[in-house]
Design a protein that fits this description.
Layout: E1 27-31, E2 38-42, E3 55-59, E4 61-63, E5 67-72, E6 78-86, E7 91-97, E8 107-111, E9 114-121, E10 127-133, H1 137-144, E11 170-173, H2 185-194, E12 197-203, E13 226-230, H3 232-243, E14 248-251, H4 253-266, E15 272-276, E16 291-295, H5 302-311, H6 313-325, E17 336-339
Parallel strand pairs: 1-17, 3-12, 3-14, 4-11, 14-16
Antiparallel strand pairs: 1-2, 5-6, 5-8, 6-7, 7-10, 8-9, 9-10, 12-13, 13-15, 16-17
Helix pairs in contact: 5-6
Length: 340
């Protein structure tokens, strides 16, 4: 299976640079998984396509301002650090720029409250950084950091909260689980009134989400590893939903990967805390989800491959062609697709 099998041509102007207000005013493309029939609507009407007894599973991970700028102490050179994964209370893995100047032992001052030392250089070029700080680390990041927006968004985000969902609570992501950005309190009220339940998982999204597939044969691609947690309450709700004939609907590819990774390992969804590098592409047999709410993803990305696994490659690419013709907004701040 070739990477080029998942290519489509996207006009640059359809890449959403800013989020819509209100959140739930985004467009919604609803696709019938069995027939491929497409319905155009707005996200605030999503409850109309769900049934009493359905269960939405959402990723409650919170993005933090992971991009910080500092000055190398012995030269005064400006440096950029993008924090990827916390290794201990004061140590992180990070992408750094300019890498050639930040070798092992380099000291960087980010503010009067925060300094860092590069303690190791990994094989892929990432750095291990040990921080010294005065106060609460994440509070400092809130003051000096910037949200790590993906590279295709070139406009500055005015409100940091708009790159987080309204239900986020577990800090740790370097990128947003963007399928959830459309939800509002009003949408949740409509879902409750319809008899649709919600449950939460946590998967901290890494920057590997945006790293391109470089190999022509997608089977040669190595997925990034991310950490996830499934609470006992979520496992219980999924089991009850199944027992009662409801549908389990994943909000986003991250929730989907979490549920499927757990079921792949244990044969069911259960309480667990694991790392996963699951790669879902056409031919994959889904064990948990009956529906998927997602955004429109980059050409040749692992995300469009996952959607193609669920809907079928031809129907996925046909839906994307329709979205382009109808001038939908694409990627992180773009519109929504629901497959059910």
């Amino acid at each position: 299976m070739q990477k080029s099998d998942f290519y489509y041509d996207l006009p640059q102007e359809l890449i959403a640079q800013t989020p819509l207000e209100p959140r739930d005013s985004s467009r919604l493309m609803k696709i019938d998984r069995a027939t491929g029939e497409i319905t155009h609507d707005r996200f605030y009407n999503i409850a109309d396509y769900l049934r009493p007894g359905d269960l939405l599973v959402l990723n409650d991970s919170k993005v933090f301002p992971a991009r910080i700028f500092g000055v190398k102490e012995n030269t005064g050179a400006v440096c950029e650090f993008l924090l990827l994964e916390q290794k201990s209370h004061d140590t992180w893995e990070a992408i750094v720029r300019p890498g050639r100047r930040l070798k092992r032992g380099a000291m960087v001052k980010f503010s009067d409250e925060l300094t860092g030392e590069v303690t190791d250089v990994l094989d892929d070029g990432d750095r291990i950084v040990r921080f010294t700080f005065d106060g609460v680390f994440f509070d400092i990041l809130d003051r000096i950091g910037q949200m790590p927006l993906p590279p295709y968004i070139t406009e500055k985000l005015r409100d940091k909260d708009r790159y987080n969902t309204v239900y986020c609570r577990e800090t740790g992501s370097a990128a947003a689980p963007t399928a959830g950005l459309h939800f509002t309190d009003s949408v949740f009220e409509k879902l409750r009134a319809k008899g649709v339940d919600t449950a939460f998982v946590t998967l901290h999204v890494g920057l590997g989400t945006f790293r391109p597939v470089k190999e022509d044969n997608i089977l040669d691609h190595k997925m990034h590893v991310e950490h996830f947690t499934i609470p006992a309450e979520t496992a219980r709700k999924i089991a009850e939903c199944r027992k009662n004939g409801g549908r389990v609907i994943s909000v986003g590819t991250t929730s989907c990967r979490t549920l499927e990774a757990c079921a792949q390992k244990y044969g069911e969804v259960r309480k667990c805390s694991e790392n996963t590098g699951i790669f879902i592409y056409p031919g994959y047999e889904f064990r948990v989800i009956d529906g998927l709410i997602t955004n429109f993803h980059l050409p040749e990305s692992t995300l469009i491959m996952l959607v193609s696994a669920f809907l079928g490659r031809e129907r996925t690419l046909a839906a994307y062609r329709t979205a382009i013709a109808e001038r939908y907004r694409f990627f992180s701040f773009g519109d929504s697709m629901m497959i059910i």
